[in-house]
Amino acid sequence: MNRKINLIGSFATDWIRYSDYEYKKSSNTEYIVPTKDAVFSMYNPFNVAEDLLLDLMRIGQLALRPEALNKPEMNLEIKNNILVFAKKYGLFGFISSCVYNRNIIGDEHVLFIENNPVTKEKTMNGKEYIRQFIPFAEEGDVEIKEYKKCVDIVKSEDSPKFYGKRPVVMDLIFSRFYAEQVNWIIDFAKMIVSHFYQLLTYREASGYLTENVTVMTDRFHAEKIGFKINQLDRTTIAWEFDSLKTTIETIYAFVVTDEKIFLSRCKHCGNIFIANSKREKYCSPSCRNCSNVKKTRARKSKAKE
Ligand SMILES: [Zn+2]
């Protein structure tokens, strides 16, 4: 058994990651951004779907622990995990997933999707919105050029450009100057984990449910997902995502509805893992052993009494 998620279709276009990231502050807000000398590489998120999802949920689980709020070393652990995550999978593309606008670049106003991590506002000036994602770019680093009939992004580095094949905003997301706030990432990771916890609760109560219950209606918003139909030896769906966020949401949707493998929570350590059957209760042999030792001890001490 391979613990592989049954992903329907393929990922149409690769995502970007840089070799190194750093934390930087802009007006007292902490951002994560590729380092100056970082080099990019492209990868296919569907090829690493299981690790991608579990690594994000690990961050969410750490952040949801009550002690995460006041323990500095706990925050350090979360931040280290986010840094490792970014190097493995890149940033989330929140600039695209937070608004209904498709191209964003050159739009006078952006219209926000409800409960996005960036703002509680309904609309914002387009340029002001973009500035939040390139707080460390200096003059000439990334420039938005508006021509009569189109807009373009001119970058002072060699990151990928799509020349109209994908929304112009992708040129910005894939740039070395594109940054995201640490809080946005933590919020998203917490949301996915909370969604899963609530789903587990509903599953336990599923015997009592008489109609469909939507899990976390107000927080789970996987918007702007497109697809094409491709033909090679067989006909397949090719998903088009403008953000890693919606990619992760889609992978998550596939795993929780998969009937061959199960996203589960370890009965011993609480970690989220992929199980091959509903009977599998522990994330690792060591957790199973620890739990067995505990049970034996409890039985022995009861016998003594
Ligand atoms: Zn465990």
List keywords for this structure.
14 strands, binds zinc ion, 35% helix, globular, 305 residues, alpha+beta, three-stranded mixed beta sheet, three-stranded antiparallel beta sheet, 8 helices, 20% strand
Task: Explain this structure.
This protein has one domain (1-207, 215-260). Helices cover 35% and strands 20% of the residues. It has eight helices and 14 strands. The protein has helices spanning 49-64, 72-89, 94-97, 126-131, 169-173, 182-204, 244-257, 285-304; strands at 10-11, 15-18, 21-26, 29-34, 40-43, 109-111, 123-125, 142-146, 151-155, 180-181, 225-231, 235-241, 262-265, 272-275. A three-stranded mixed beta sheet has the order 1-12-11. Strands 3-4-10 form a three-stranded antiparallel beta sheet. Strands 2-5 form a two-stranded antiparallel ribbon. Helix 1 packs antiparallel against helix 2 (72-89) and helix 1 (49-64) crosses helix 6. It is globular.
Concise synopsis of the structure shown:
The protein has 305 residues and is α+β, with helices and mostly antiparallel strands. The chain has helices at residues 49-64, 72-89, 94-97, 126-131, 169-173, 182-204, 244-257, 285-304; strands at 10-11, 15-18, 21-26, 29-34, 40-43, 109-111, 123-125, 142-146, 151-155, 180-181, 225-231, 235-241, 262-265, 272-275.
